[in-house]
Design a protein that fits this description.
- There is one protein chain.
- With 245 residues, this protein is α/β, with parallel strands linked by helices.
- Helices cover 44% and strands 11% of the residues.
- The chain contains seven helices and seven strands; from the N terminus they run αβαβαββαβαβαβα.
- The protein is globular, with a radius of gyration of 27 Å.
- The termini are far apart.
- Mean pLDDT is 84; it is low at 23-35 and 235-245.
- Belongs to the MPI phosphatase family.
- Keywords: Cell cycle, Cell division, Hydrolase, Mitosis, Protein phosphatase.
- Residues 1-24 are annotated as: Disordered.
- Pfam families: Rhodanese.
Length: 245
């Protein structure tokens, strides 16, 4: 007579312990699978579109609004100094809400002459702080925000920081590929030197100070070291261990 009573007490106990865990596993699996399938479909669709239309901006939504030229960096979209002056003169205001010129030269170069309205950002930290901590947004959905990078010749510093921004923009939007905060990036072909030689009226002051100026050798060493160091990079140097704060 006692045996049925004991079995009845064991059965609800075992069901209560295992049932919620098993049920949660069953309900989670289809959700994960469905999310993965939707993301994969979006990626395939985006890649198919860019294969058919290679001149689309970074989120593959539309064509570049500025005319581009063949530059030294095949992975970046280059514009001429003439096109940049047209942007500065407002000739593209009907499609551009904000156009930011990013001057990646060192401060003494920037102070020795720069493009009107340009922002001097020469470190990875400054790029992250300016553009990714609080990303820009457009008030008019029909208009665009564009960034135009350059350095002295647009050979190394400008292209590298442009690529750096795109990489971390992709990482921050990895769950909604191919969306980007800044899908439309340009590189000023020939850099400030070429721009100054052809469009001096759009420079302030109207002078040009090269990176290797004889009066700034100490500044060059200081800013070059500062621009190459970045807190976001992990160091695996032997004999060093990271400090914990």
């Amino acid at each position: 007579e006692n045996t049925p009573v004991q079995s009845k007490r064991r059965r609800p106990f075992s069901v209560d312990v295992t049932s919620p865990f098993e049920e949660s596993k069953k309900t989670l699996k289809p959700k994960l699978h469905r999310c993965h399938s939707e993301s994969e479909a979006m990626i395939k669709s985006a890649l198919n579109r860019v294969a058919d239309e290679p001149d689309l901006i970074g989120d593959f939504s539309k064509q570049y609004c500025l005319p581009t030229i063949q530059g030294k960096h095949s992975d970046l979209k280059a514009i001429s100094s003439e096109t940049l002056t047209q942007v500065l003169a407002g000739e593209y205001d009907h499609v551009i809400e904000q156009a930011i010129v990013v001057d990646c030269r060192y401060p003494y170069e920037y102070e020795g002459g720069h493009i009107k309205g340009a922002q001097n950002l020469y470190t990875k930290e400054s790029i992250m702080q300016t553009f990714l901590k609080t990303p820009m947004t457009s008030e008019d959905p029909e208009k665009r925000n564009i960034l135009i990078f350059h350095c002295e010749f647009s050979s190394e510093r400008g292209p590298n920081l442009s690529r750096f921004l795109r990489k971390f923009d992709r990482d921050s939007n990895k769950d909604c590929y191919p969306q980007l905060h800044y899908p439309e990036l340009y590189l000023l072909e020939g850099g400030y030197k070429n721009f100054y030689e052809n469009q001096k009226a759009f420079c302030e002051p109207q002078t040009y100070k090269p990176m290797l100026h004889k009066d700034h050798s100490e500044d060059l060493r200081h800013f070059r070291l500062k621009s190459k160091s970045w807190a976001g990079e992990k160091t695996n140097r032997p004999g060093f261990r990271p400090l914990k704060f």
